[in-house]
């Protein structure tokens, strides 16, 4: 699972022509007269968001969609999944996966289709080297923590990963497992790097990890010259742009574009102006600019939903300010907060109707068998009077407008994303509705990357915040089989809120177990129902969104392939399939 940036939820299922609403057209391809080799795609990033980790296996503090989107230009995951959430062997680094009857051993055969850009083959040794990095960064003493700890049973369920020759990898687990879950969430999160380039200190993993950390945000470093993806990194200017050029040695579909540029956007106004003037040809329509969309006469607007959900987190850490960590651990407190979230009102007033109500950890759109249909609506509807009565029932009394009990006040810092007007409006609406219950939040806005860093329980200072919202929700990546192990399990790397519940842990573990299709799906639903009831996070409405979560996707009429090639399951774009027409 990865954090999305700004006004969005998670990745939507198919971006079809029927899902489009036009700014001048209702066609996703806008019938080009002629396409030609060359041209540049300029892609706007979410407001005040920058890629900051270019090593393809992301740290917990950099575990975001924007980093994956940019890194996927240079590197391929071991396994690619198609729009139906099935293994796509034609695009994967593996040509075959076999496993035993108990789901404890998996044999991966590497494809010969893809190579490193220096001409060397991608080997089993590269895969094992990358696994060793993931294993090392799953421990508490590592210089940095891998963001996928807890996903796919990492690291406790993995017993051994070893190479057999140059083209086979054997993965052995400690416990019988559902192969569908493990292939998706375990094997699916390995993004190999070339050992010959990255293995700087074979006898000292700590030194190796410190080196990776030192160059993680330095894409011009020579280690990034050897890649297996469709593009090479060319140049960048911080808080300005990041430029990629085609990799002529790429084993897949080669780019017809001469350049792909990711562009930093300082504000919604800057983003809208860039679309209007054509300085970007792939971007997003800010929700706050919905009324002005008719001005974008040369663009096509799409309204997709992505596999995931939207939420904000509470700080359960005992060191949380004001002694509120143990208070937030009380279910009735979270229920009162949830009753103060006006999902229908937010959908209409903030997202212009382009969002859905959400009641659990897998949103009802896009349609997927992985979402429990019983949770299509919130279990706790908007009712601030009922929420206030619930607090009073447990001994809280309003003092000068703030609910107070035993000297503790329900007044705290709300760490919230800056730069997006829709998110600012949402924050103010939440503040106003919670005030009706005597819950006072003091909004402190920061940029997306800063919130991710400050809210990281493993990294910085849990005393800085009580509630946090980076504004974009969560995508199921790399846990394409949407269990909660990476986010809600005790000690998971992305469990920034420090949530811990033994029943939740048990249900998550049961969702990994082998069984019939009906049994494994029921186990997943049992976890989802418990999460909906227990509120490990506060559910927010789930907006339609673009890649990496930045509002509604928009592309110029002469840029083709952005919609048809986008994979909403993996939240990946494929500029190497895009073309520009004259």
TrEMBL record:
Keyword Cell inner membrane attached: no
Major place of residence: other
Domain Solute-binding protein family: 98-481
SUPFAM superfamilies xrefs: Periplasmic binding protein-like II
Signal peptide: 1-21
Pfam families: SBP_bac_5
Keyword Acetylation found: no
Subcellular location: Cell envelope
Keywords for the protein's UniProt record, in alphabetical order: Signal, Transport
Annotated family: Belongs to the bacterial solute-binding protein 5 family.
Protein name: ABC transporter substrate-binding protein
Native organism: Sulfobacillus thermotolerans
